[in-house]
TrEMBL record:
Pfam families: AstE_AspA_cat. The gene is doeB_2. The lineage of its organism: Bacteria, Bacillati, Bacillota, Clostridia, Eubacteriales. GO terms for molecular function: hydrolase activity, acting on ester bonds; metal ion binding. This is N-alpha-acetyl-L-2,4-diaminobutyric acid deacetylase. The keyword Lipid biosynthesis does not apply. Its cofactor is Zn(2+). Gene3D superfamilies: Zn peptidases (3.40.630.10). Coiled coil: none annotated. Keywords: Hydrolase, Metal-binding, Zinc.
Length: 311
């Protein structure tokens, strides 16, 4: 059932409307577990649109196996998606920097508070993001170090390639995921793909993982596919590779490829002079999990992240 969770008047007889699709068994006892799938907080991140479609379609075609409630929020920033704008247009505001919001606050804060209110009480939430237009990310879950013991077991069920456990100091308290975890609602931040694009194979991979997680939570009783074992960052160090020159970057490695210390990640060249300005070299042995997608780079631009040993 499609439900409206926020509806506000805008200028020129328009409205800001945020909707969800609730999928539930025919007979509700009131004791069912609930999972929320949220995406579209950033209007230029579209990977979640396919995931929502595929998940709804498969559940509806096999509704007899649904044993709990699945709430799917495809577009938490509909104005941003409609205008291909990362933040909320007109307000020049990042929607994922205003949680938990306030019902009596400005419009964006009110919207954030209503989103939190609607998700409140869920047994699990998947907050799905894509990268920006500059970088491509392998399917991964990002978890704050202080709650890794609680969330890593769930993250392992999601069929992701990588689990990045990062220091608590890098987590912004105004994000949706932080706010939900702070309310003791387990929330997993998934990031994958590239901005303004949809990577179908990544979406299919995550949908299989969501069904696997729902099976574990007794929300789904149907058969599920076996999932891959992710690499977990706590075992190794994340190394950042930044450009030392400006120009055009051409990679010589692929995502999730293994690389040795001293091997080429790619090169940066000048299209005007025909000169290779820099050979980008890996500082360690490891696995490439982030790779530059947009080829124009400047000194300091992030080229890749490598999970491996110390430099």
């Amino acid at each position: 059932m499609v439900e409206t969770i926020v509806s506000l008047e805008l200028a020129v007889d328009e409205r800001l409307i945020i909707k969800k699709n609730r999928l539930a068994p025919a007979n509700i006892s009131g004791k069912e577990k609930r999972i929320c799938i949220v995406t579209g907080l950033h209007g230029d991140e579209l990977e979640g649109q396919y995931v929502c479609y595929k998940l709804i379609k498969e559940i509806q075609e096999n509704i007899e196996y649904l044993n709990g409630i699945v709430d799917i929020y495809p577009s938490l920033n509909p104005l941003g998606i409609d205008s291909i704008h990362r933040g909320m247009p007109t307000f020049d505001l990042d929607m994922n920097r205003i949680f938990p919001g306030s019902e009596s606050g400005a419009m964006a804060e009110h919207v954030a508070a209503k989103i939190i209110e609607d998700i409140d009480g869920a047994d699990m939430c998947i907050d799905l993001h894509a990268s920006n237009i500059f970088l491509r990310e392998v399917p991964q879950v990002r978890i704050s170090e202080n709650i890794k013991d609680k969330l890593v077991p769930y993250a392992k069920l999601l069929n992701m390639d990588f689990i990045w456990v990062h220091p608590e100091t890098t987590v912004l308290e105004s994000t949706l995921t932080y706010s939900l975890n702070n309310k003791n609602i387990p929330a997993l931040l998934v990031e994958m793909g590239v901005g303004m694009r949809i990577t179908k194979e990544y979406g299919d991979q995550l949908v299989e993982g969501i069904f696997n997680l729902m099976k574990e939570l007794n929300i789904w009783t149907g058969t599920v596919a076996s999932v891959r074992q992710p690499i977990i960052s706590t075992e190794k160090e994340v190394n950042f590779i930044n450009a030392k020159a400006s120009g055009i970057f051409m990679p010589s490695v692929k995502h999730l490829s293994e690389i040795k210390k001293g091997e080429r990640v790619g090169e940066i060249f000048s299209s005007l002079t025909g000169v290779a300005e820099e050979q980008v070299i890996s500082p360690c042995d490891g696995v490439v999990f982030t790779l530059r997608e947009y080829p124009v780079v400047y000194e300091g631009s992030l080229i890749a992240r490598v999970l491996g040993g110390a430099k």
